[in-house]
Amino acid sequence: MSQIGYARLIAQFDLTVRALRKPAVISTAVNRKVVAEDRVLFPTGVALDDSPLGHLEFALRHEGVNLEVIEAAFAHIEPASLVARLRATPNGDPIRRACFLWEWLTGQTLEADVAPTGSYVDLFPVDEYFTSAMPRRMPRFRVRDNALGTADFCPIVRRISVPTMPDLAELLAEARHTLEATQGSDLYERALQYLYLSETRGSFGIEHESPSADKQARFVELLRHAGEDVRMDENGLVQLQNVIVRDAYSQETSYRTRQNWLEDATGRITFFPPPPEDLRRVMGGWAAFVNDTQRCPDNLVKAACAAFGLVYLHPFMDGNGRLHRFLIHHVLARSGLLGREWLIPVSAVILKRIPAYHAVLSGFSRPVTALWNYQRGDAAPMILRTPGGRPYRFFEADQEVAFLHEMIRLAVQDEIPAELAWLQGYDAAFAMLDADLDLPRKDLSALIRMIHSNGGKLSQNRRRQYSYLPDAVLNRIEVVVGGVFANGKDAC
After folding, report:
1. What is the pLDDT of residue 489?
2. Which residue, 1, 170, 332, 385, has most beta carbons within 10 Å?
């Protein structure tokens, strides 16, 4: 089998880019395009000009838009060949898109005295990709620039990756309905308190940290301001980072100027974020993406690309993870789909599904880190080669968007109803037992929580802890708690 399209460009020019998930190849075993598990097969008779530009045109026609490969390949494709092909086929779809991309990615201008007259063509096919709500018409090549971002930061999301039922608006409407049903009651205020505390503890817990009361209070206050009209740029992010980091020694005054990396428990490097010399450009593009209120019309896509984009860029030496999760709430709050005081406890759900979360993160970090060439030193790695900012500027966010959708769904349909059921059950059990038993309220409250968390029974260790209470009292509390929550489950 011979490689074609993007795979051929990568092999021919030895491009430093991430491996393709499904490279295109010519196969004598098929007579039509066949999408296999690890590659895409094309018949020998497929129309193809066997030249670098020909393979690029083929890729744009049949393989989608891979900005990382395209930009790397342009270093090896002569601009004159683009102009010559445009002159030969001035209304051709792939060549017009290729010419536009050359100028868009290189920042230079092609010396082309050709004026296409055909209909405008979309840079990203709208039936395949999430695209800008406000595409710009570029008359030079009659191309509609409908990218979600710019050449400095442009996430790419295929429509097939995102579940359509229920969509984000339906999920947030469901959350709103659930919470509105408790408005005007003590339960409502306690539910709101739970949402913020649960999200705070979850976000810290993901990083194996138990926040102090002061740090917890500061993060809760930060969450309460999510969605406010604050510009997400270097100054804004520095202020946020200063609120959430562990201590004053970790606070930053600007984006990092040193290379950082992540390690596992064995000391193996698991991720390199972009080198400092490329960070400012891509962070500028990221900020433009996040602050633009019109270009990306889908709030789920925007939240996922903004949040995961930031953690992949790692603009600070510390605090990137919690900033990344805060951004989910910031974008959702700005969507107008949920009440400003309400919050979806996404981190609480993620904390219960850490392997799935790590799988998404490593889906980006592993192939990107493989592009780095380094030697392990005593204190820091010696960097021999970096891929620059390119793989970070153009990341395919299919997994990230699908994962965020599932976490929001679980938070809305499982986590919030379960917590409301717990609060209602607790109130019922406490009221019944407080009337019957002469116990300190803090002891009664603790016993209800212990019994509920242990499946309706008080463990032997806990019974010894409360050995000063008669067994009959402890048994009575078990019966009431078990009955209340069993009835609640049946009602559900």
Report:
1. 53
2. 332
Looking at the structure, do residues 284 and 362 belong to the same domain, yes or no?
Answer: yes
Contact 306, 162 (CB under 8 A): no
Over 50: is that where the pLDDT of 44 sits? Answer: yes
Structure token pair of residue 190? 């306690």
Residue type, 164: T
Query: How far is the C-alpha of 270 from the C-alpha of 123, rounded, in Å?
Result: 34
Do the strands 373-375 and 136-138 form a parallel or antiparallel pair, or are they unpaired? unpaired
Q: At what angle do helices 67-74 and 93-106 cross, to 10 degrees?
A: 80
> Could you tell me if residue 64 is left (phi over 0), alpha (psi between -120 and 50 degrees) or otherwise beta?
left
Share of the chain above pLDDT 90, in %: 75
Quote the domain boundaries for residue 356.
161-414
Is there a single domain that holds both residue 172 and residue 282?
A: yes
Shared domain for 316 and 459, answered yes or no, is no
213-226 mean pLDDT: 88
User: Residue 41: enclosing H or E segment and its boundaries?
Assistant: strand 40-42
d(CA 139, CA 118): 11
Residues 430-455 have pLDDT tens digits of 999 998 888 999 999 999 999 999 99
Residues 6+ apart with CB under 8 A from 422: 452
Place of tokens 């301001």: 225
Q: Count up the domains in the chain and report the number.
A: 3
Mean per-residue pLDDT, 20-47: 93
Q: What is the CATH number of the domain that holds 223?
A: 1.10.3290.10
Query: What does 324-339 look like in DSSP terms, one character per residue?
Result: HHHHHHHHHHHTTSS-
